[in-house]
Write a structure and sequence with these properties.
8-stranded parallel barrel; TIM Barrel
Length: 267
């Protein structure tokens, strides 16, 4: 299959990076999206803004030990803060040290016209800096602002930079946008450079993202709409807001691998 398919380590929010890499590798995946979400969980240690070139090389060697390629960084919770641009540039610097070409993020909580102005000012500067370093910023369908395909497309068109694209999250559009991905994703197709594959319990506005193939998302239709999409994807599992054991998570990552294998996305 033409797509790179990884697992984002936010699937393992209460586990350390070694446990995450081990589970992802043993499931059969060959790529990983490393999550860095300050104040929530951190799988890049020391944190990206404190990391050196030696730290980046150590992280890459660690991934190699588990026969995984670090393909993307999920750099969430950095937007809509006073020091957004400064901190995001440090994340971009770290991604460059790791030769990572994709950073996924969300817009943050935008609640006013002033928030919206700040967002567009910041994302323009971030995209310009990322572009100069050969990196694509992928804005996730997440939260109260960029929460469906039409809104995401509107943002991408307004910023109008080749390296600012969408990270379409098939579960988040149900949770935050109240739309079904198999009906919504068509409007995002020209602007997508990354996809988070999440299954869903089937109810709108419900946080319940089980292993792929265990929920009610119509992936058969989604994959048919993505037949011409050749960009990267990541599996993400977030359950129903409850903690799960490492054994349970690993079993669901493997279940997700087998589900994708049935569609030819992994070997």
């Amino acid at each position: 299959m033409k797509n790179i398919v990884s697992v984002v380590t936010s699937t393992y929010p209460k586990n350390n990076v070694l446990e995450a890499l081990d589970g992802i590798s043993k499931a059969g995946f060959k790529y990983v999206e490393m999550a860095s979400a300050p104040s929530y969980f951190e799988h890049i240690l020391p944190r990206p803004e404190l990391s050196t070139e030696a730290d980046a090389k150590n992280l890459l060697r660690l991934c190699e030990k588990y026969e995984l390629e670090l393909y993307a960084i999920a750099g969430h919770t950095r937007m809509m803060k006073e020091d957004t641009v400064k901190n995001f540039k440090k994340l971009i610097d770290f991604a460059k040290l790791c030769d990572v070409k994709f950073i996924t993020t969300d817009a943050g909580e935008i609640k006013s016209d002033e928030d919206e102005k700040k967002f567009f000012k910041d994302i323009n500067e971030i995209a310009e800096y990322a572009g100069a370093n050969g990196i694509t910023i992928c804005l996730e369908t997440h939260g109260n602002y960029c929460n469906n395909a039409k809104k995401g497309a509107e943002i991408i068109k307004k910023v109008n930079k080749n390296n600012l694209r969408l990270n379409y999250d098939t579960g988040n559009v149900m949770l935050y946008g109240g739309v079904k991905p198999e009906e919504d994703i068509q409007y995002a197709l020209p602007y997508i450079a990354f996809i988070h594959l999440k299954d869903s319990g089937g109810k709108l506005f419900e946080w319940n993202f089980p292993a792929l193939g265990s929920g009610k998302t119509n992936f058969k239709k989604i994959f048919s709409l993505l037949k011409d999409y050749s960009g990267p994807m990541s599996v993400e599992i977030e359950y129903e807001g409850k903690d799960h054991s490492l054994k349970e998570i690993n079993a669901d990552v493997k279940k997700s691998y087998d589900f994708l294998k049935s569609f030819g996305y992994v070997q």
